[in-house]
Design brief:
This protein is about 55% helix and about 10% strand. The chain contains 9 helices and 5 strands; from the N terminus they run E-H-E-H-H-H-H-E-H-E-H-H-E-H. The structure holds 2'-deoxycytidine-5'-monophosphate.
């Protein structure tokens, strides 16, 4: 059983996907962190994330211990991730790992942008989590403040919009709901509401 959870930045898909994995006792993979690891590795080596050869080298030499790098969640690394993610060769380099992970028994929950459309088009349950840019910026702003990153709200909102635009309009695996995805609009929902709705949907798919 594969549960694909996609959606734009800061929509709460990570929180939801993790909670679903816990609920069903499935494996969980935050695929955004793979792109963040590539973005981080490129920046650490002093390269520009737009440098396609440098990004591909970083993707091919990805070290799992980067997963625990505290700077992975920073805005700077998020932006670098979004830039390297537009590179088809980088995406291809990360595909095998994601698909292998998805096939783990008894099941896996993967969250990202293209899980239901490209990585696991045959996933049994696909959820597209979204919320208005303002609500997402508010959530991301609070998350950054918790990490001690003081960024004006307007800056966070502008960055969220820029990232949406880049993720939606890129040529390869753009951010779009799969045709058979359940769209979960969480602007007016608590985490618990969203989890309940998602479980209802997955159970209805014959989990
Ligand atoms: O979900 P996140 O904010 O950690 O993702 C960071 C960037 O990685 C995001 O802007 C786009 C990219 N990404 C992607 O292209 N495909 C995925 N499956 C996951 C993330």
């Amino acid at each position: 059983m594969i549960i694909a959870v996609d959606g734009p930045a800061a929509a709460g898909k990570g929180t939801l996907a993790r909670a679903l994995a816990r609920h069903y006792n499935y494996h969980f993979l935050d695929t955004g962190s793979l792109y963040r690891m590539v973005g981080f590795a490129v920046l650490v080596r002093g390269h520009d994330p737009r440098d396609e050869a440098a990004a591909l080298r970083a993707a091919q030499a990805l070290k799992p211990d980067l997963m625990h790098e505290p700077d992975l969640r920073s805005e700077k690394v998020g932006e670098a991730a979004s830039i390297v993610a537009a590179n088809l060769k980088v995406r291809e380099a990360l595909l095998g790992f994601q698909r292998d992970f998805a096939s783990r028994a008894p099941g896996a929950v993967l969250d990202g942008r293209d899980i239901g459309t490209v990585v696991c088009p045959d996933a049994e349950a696909k959820i597209f989590v979204t919320a208005s840019p303002e609500v997402r910026a508010r959530r991301r702003h609070a998350e950054l403040a918790e990490r001690g990153e003081v960024v004006p709200f307007e800056t966070v909102l502008a960055e969220i919009k820029a990232r949406d635009e880049r993720d939606r309009t890129r040529a390869h695996a753009p951010l779009v709901p799969a045709k058979d995805a359940y769209v979960l609009e969480t602007s007016a929902m608590t985490r618990e509401d969203a989890l309940r709705a998602a479980i209802e949907f997955v159970d209805g798919r014959g989990k």
